[in-house]
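Example (one chain per record):
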Amino acid sequence: MSRAEVDDELLDETPEDDTPENGDMRSSTGVFVGWIVMLALFALLYAYTTWTAVQNVITVPPLITRNYDFYRANGLDGLIKPVPWTPLVIAVVSPVVGFVAGILLGRGRSLWRRALWLLVVFAAVSAVAASVSASISGAFGL
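Predicted structure:
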């Protein structure tokens, strides 16, 4: 064998990583099933956060309107503030955007790193939801 043939042969031999930690879900059925189960669990967490935000969009404006009716009846027009639609909409949109971002950030990574990205993004989404809830309840006395 000539030196060029040996070099070509060495270049053609690429080590194959058969472990399921290489991020390729096609290499192992177990990795794919694990990804689907993990995705379903995180989807439930994000769905719960989204449902809570939708519930706030439905219940908070009538509560604020009832308070405003009381303020108007008692001559306290200076305490009336507009309904906080922007934080309410942010609370609804952030779980959806966060879930998609967590999936995209985890692309091509191992299963545990995908779970870690989804968990980190879920923590950020939960922080946004908590701050929106605290700001609305603090500002409007709910």
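Caption: The chain has a mean pLDDT of 80.
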